[in-house]
């Protein structure tokens, strides 16, 4: 029997209580042949070389001063664009790699709003294609051989041959959108550099994933390289999205201001630094090619939609995924899940899905569940019960596959064996298996280029589903993460399983003692206790470090970092990007760049794509697990086009007010990137939350597309029912969210079919208003709803701007009272704890459904219509209806609602029918009490008009809509 070392920690602590010191013990786990403790990997296995990032090095070589640039020759027009040969204009500089002497320039126009510029080696040696170009199967091209007449384009390409420079110009205004004038193109096998001029005080957005305000600074560096890291500020995170849009404002002849936006996308996922300076932007990558797509806009919404259509329209979500989800790392057994589900129902807080972190797994191994704490019989009964209640289950799934100990016959893991037989794993350059380390111990990593990987992946998910009836998959650690540098397990597998080279939360020396800002003011007694615990911990850790003795759980270890197989410096490229991991080493906390794929490509060229390819493989697998249904996948790592398969959560954020505030620009960024199914770990993941922060955050996240509460192992529990104030705040916000579900679902339909956004920045809706350029503490949900949350500790009010000019109307969600636009000024709004200000934009019509405990129950409830008239007395809205889950719909309906001249007209297209009746119609902005209300030709008697809010409410419509609110066209008038 094998002994597993665990830590006992409190599963729940009252708000503000300090965590007690965990007691270390040993517990026997099922294994019939041996008794031994799990060894802990030494901490130095995850320590790479200490590199100096080029951006930090004052002595770094300046390629612009050293390199000669290029000259364009053989310039010729061709169908849909032009081509040219670029030749090096002087001696090779070889500053951060080997110069490519001759390049091909290929310019392609089409459609009207799009222009593509590709610069690639003129003659790519066989076998080196993946160095420079990413397969279209992996990353969609924005222009696919379109033969488009350039004279019809909204953009113009202008070329200077010697020295080679180019610019992209908006024809209608002759505005230069992108220009390399005055700079040189540097193109080497491991380094690209090009620069564009920018206007002063430019407004630039995107270039993610990053924790930052929505508008990027004008003296600012961005690094893109997928990595496993706890949401640091202004550093590279889990995804790579080399796309930005720039928003400029011009003064017209009449003195008014008009906004113009354009977008730029670099189809290159190698590690890269992007330097934003006062009047320029410089792109540096450690490989690939120049593959730029320009979008003409001219509004931010048009730029974003064009980009999303180019990289891949987002998947249509199942209706149930828009409900509320609960998770935590620390639901230790099925009883914990059961208790949480029952508690949510007891407190009457809607719960759509319960999630499991790695607790459910058998020794953290994929496609398994712990036979003791998550035994199949008990687990299956639990899942049957929640499914019968219309609820769902989503488990986490990690990227690495455990390697069984060859010296332990009881350490069998058939899923690994099946993958080995399918030749499904990454290799070292010498052909041996690349063996890193993640949660279960020494692990291997799927190779998505191998022909047998997809079938093995699908078969594994199908087999596991027969045991555990999951409803979606949560992909984590897929940057791809490894806890050691190099193939550290190659000579150490006989020591498997091993503990990670760091303590887990709650283990001795790693207590969760962080609390939100201001906790010492609101919870002074508890804060003092925590401060004492922190001082004790720090003293103990310092004494341990000073002792310099070997750790009793250390193990003999043989590291293995194999050399590269080509002329490039693979593990340590000559240009060091400003990578967030220690020493800027690309192999720290990741599979090393020299890991080899079956098609000959290296992780160096594929790293940031790994998670995206895993998502695609999982999406295809779930199509087999759930034939005909839309797969539900949430992933941590993303790239352009990931939204076609999955949503994203914001990763391992912190229980801090700052992180709650930053969740808004983070969400808006993923709207730009075409991944609308986005949310964050509500109430925070790392650290302990408190009542006030959790109450505010539960209300804010109620208006994010993906709504989930999740926190770290051994932190205090933060389910919404833990505090009365949080429970009340959650019920209030959830009632609004569930009422708005048909509206949100319709927004997703538009996103899926046109690339429109779900969450929106105010500047996207009002592109001519320069005062909105930096607004990211409030946001729009579609065109109709504005949310202005409280984001500061201790505040009982917030402030917001109401855009739109003197004729715009905004209606309070709760009181229906109207207010006019604030002309760029911030307005104070009362917002005591438990209240989140929400407003309806005049000119919109919302089809609403009575909320219930689950989305399935809500879909069976009566409807309401809310008409928010604009200053002219008009409004518009639409509604998309289908079965809420099928990948291909047999029947749908699209409902159009239009109000004008005191008449609400409802028309429909499609064959989808439902029997839910209409309960009421509420019309906001009716200045006078009507004399008569009619539904079709029938006069109605149940209605009221409130003079103070100018609200007309018509009720008792169930009788005239017995066949269903949307079964036929109808009219309602008020005269």
From TrEMBL:
Gene3D superfamilies recorded: Glycosidases, glycosyl hydrolase (family 31), Golgi alpha-mannosidase II
Glycoside hydrolase family 31 TIM barrel domain segment(s): 314-747
Biological processes annotated in GO: carbohydrate metabolic process
InterPro entries for this protein: Gal_mutarotase_sf_dom, GH, Glyco_hydro_31_AS, Glyco_hydro_31_C, Glyco_hydro_31_CS, Glyco_hydro_31_N_dom, Glyco_hydro_31_TIM, Glyco_hydro_b
Molecular function terms, GO-annotated: alpha-1,4-glucosidase activity; carbohydrate binding
Domain named Glycosyl hydrolase family 31 C-terminal: residues: 755-846
Residue intervals of the Glycoside hydrolase family 31 N-terminal domain: 128-249
Keywords: Glycoprotein, Glycosidase, Hydrolase, Signal
Top-level EC class: hydrolase
Signal peptide: 1-22
PANTHER family documented for this protein: ALPHA-GLUCOSIDASE, P-TYPE DOMAIN-CONTAINING PROTEIN
Protein name (record): alpha-glucosidase
Upper taxonomic lineage: Eukaryota, Fungi, Dikarya, Ascomycota, Pezizomycotina
């Amino acid at each position: 029997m094998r002994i597993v070392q665990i830590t006992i920690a409190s599963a729940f602590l009252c708000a503000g209580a300090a965590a007690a010191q965990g007691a270390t013990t040993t517990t026997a786990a099922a294994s019939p042949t041996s008794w031994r403790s799990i060894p802990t990997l030494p901490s130095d296995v995850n320590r790479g070389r200490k590199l100096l990032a080029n951006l930090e090095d004052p002595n770094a070589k300046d390629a612009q001063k050293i390199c000669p640039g290029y000259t364009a020759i053989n310039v010729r027009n061709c169908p849909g664009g032009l081509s040219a040969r670029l030749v090096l204009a002087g001696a090779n500089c070889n500053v951060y790699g080997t110069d490519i002497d001759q390049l091909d320039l290929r310019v392609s126009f089409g459609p009207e709003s799009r222009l593509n510029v590709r610069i690639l080696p003129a003659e790519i040696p066989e076998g080196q294609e993946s160095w420079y170009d990413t397969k279209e199967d992996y990353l969609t091209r924005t222009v696919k051989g379109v033969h488009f007449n350039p004279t019809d384009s909204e953009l113009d390409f202008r070329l200077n041959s010697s020295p080679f420079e180019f610019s992209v110009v908006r024809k209608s205004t002759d505005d230069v959108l992108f220009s390399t004038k005055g700079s040189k193109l540097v193109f080497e096998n491991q380094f690209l550099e090009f620069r564009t001029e920018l206007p002063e005080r430019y407004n630039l957005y995107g270039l993610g994933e990053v924790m930052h305000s929505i508008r990027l600074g004008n003296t600012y560096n961005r690094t893109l390289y997928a990595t496993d890291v706890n949401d640091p500020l202004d550093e590279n995170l889990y995804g790579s999205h080399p796309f930005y849009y720039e928003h400029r404002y011009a003064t017209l002849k009449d003195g008014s201001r008009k906004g113009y936006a354009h977008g730029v996308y670099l189809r290159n996922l190698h590690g890269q630094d992007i330097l934003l300076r006062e009047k320029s932007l410089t792109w540096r990558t450690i490989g690939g090619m120049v593959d730029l797509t320009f979008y003409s806009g001219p509004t931010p919404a048009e730029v974003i939609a064009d980009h999303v259509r180019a990289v891949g329209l987002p998947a249509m979500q199942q209706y149930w995924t828009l409900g509320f989800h609960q998770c935590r790392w620390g639901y230790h057994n099925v009883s914990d899940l059961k208790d949480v589900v029952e508690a949510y129902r007891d407190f009457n807080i809607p719960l759509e899905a319960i999630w499991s972190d790695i607790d459910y797994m058998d020794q953290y191994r994929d496609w398994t569940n712990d036979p003791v704490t998550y035994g199949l019989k008990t687990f299956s009964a639990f899942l049957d019960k929640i499914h019968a209640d219309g609820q769902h289950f989503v488990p986490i799934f990690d990227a690495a596959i455990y390697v069984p100990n060859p010296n332990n016959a009881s350490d069998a893991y058939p899923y690994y064996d099946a993958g080995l037989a399918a030749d499904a794993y990454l290799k070292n350059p010498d052909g041996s298996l690349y063996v890193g380390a993640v949660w279960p111990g020494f692990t291997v990593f799927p190779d998505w280029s191998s022909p047998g990987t997809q079938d093995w992946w699908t078969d594994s998910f199908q087999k596991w589903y027969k045991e555990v009836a999951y409803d979606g998959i949560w992909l984590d650690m897929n940057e791809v993460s490894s806890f050691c540098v190099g193939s550290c397990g190659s000579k150490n597998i006989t020591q498997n399983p091993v503990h990670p080279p760091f303590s887990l939360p709650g283990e001795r020396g790693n207590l969760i003692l962080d609390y939100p800002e201001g906790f010492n003011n609101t919870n002074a007694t508890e804060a003092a206790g925590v401060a004492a615990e922190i001082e004790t911990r720090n003293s103990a850790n310092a004494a341990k470090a000073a002792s310099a003795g070997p750790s009793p759980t250390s193990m003999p270890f043989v590291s293995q970092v194999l050399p590269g197989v080509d002329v490039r410096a693979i593990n340590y490229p000559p240009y060091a990007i400003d990578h967030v991991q220690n020493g800027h080493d690309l192999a720290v906390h990741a599979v090393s760049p020299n890991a080899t794929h079956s098609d000959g490509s290296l992780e160096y060229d594929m790293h940031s794509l790994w998670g995206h390819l895993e998502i695609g493989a999982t999406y295809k697998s779930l199509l087999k697990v759930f034939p005909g249904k839309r797969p539900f996948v949430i992933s941590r790592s993303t790239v352009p086009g990931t939204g076609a398969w999955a949503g994203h959560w914001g990763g391992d954020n912190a229980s801090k007010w700052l992180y709650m505030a930053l969740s808004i620009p983070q969400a808006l960024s993923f709207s730009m990137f075409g991944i609308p199914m986005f949310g964050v770990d509500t109430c925070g993941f790392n650290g302990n939350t408190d009542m006030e922060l959790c109450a505010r955050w539960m209300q804010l996240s109620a208006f994010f597309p993906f709504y989930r509460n999740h926190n770290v192992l051994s932190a205090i529990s933060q389910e919404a029912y833990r505090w009365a104030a949080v429970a009340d705040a959650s019920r209030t916000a959830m009632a609004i969210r569930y009422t708005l579900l048909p509206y949100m679902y319709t927004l997703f339909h538009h996103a899926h079919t046109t690339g429109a956004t779900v969450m929106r920045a105010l500047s996207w809706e009002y592109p001519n208003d320069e005062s909105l350029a930096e607004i990211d503490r409030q946001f729009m949900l579609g065109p109709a709803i504005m949310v202005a949350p409280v984001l500061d500790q201790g505040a009982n009010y917030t402030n917001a701007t109401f855009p739109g000019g003197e004729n715009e109307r905004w209606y309070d969600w709760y009181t229906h009272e109207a207010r006019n636009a604030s002309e760029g000024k911030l307005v104070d709004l009362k917002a005591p704890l438990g209240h989140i200000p929400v407003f309806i934009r005049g000119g919109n019509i919302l089809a609403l459904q009575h909320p219930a405990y689950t989305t399935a129950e809500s879909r069976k409830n009566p409807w309401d219509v809310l008409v928010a008239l604009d200053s002219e007395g008009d409004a518009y809205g639409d509604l998309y209806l289908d079965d809420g889950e099928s990948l291909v719909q047999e029947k749908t309906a699209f409902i159009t609602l239009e109000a004008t001249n005191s008449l609400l007209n409802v028309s429909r297209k499609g064959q989808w029918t439902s029997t839910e009746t209409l309960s009421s119609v509420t019309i906001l902005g009716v200045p006078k009490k009507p004399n008569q209300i009619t539904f079709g030709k029938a006069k109605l008697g149940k209605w009221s008009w409130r003079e103070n809010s100018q609200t007309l409410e018509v009720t008792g419509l169930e009788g005239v809509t017995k066949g269903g609110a949307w079964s036929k066209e109808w009219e309602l008038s008020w005269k």
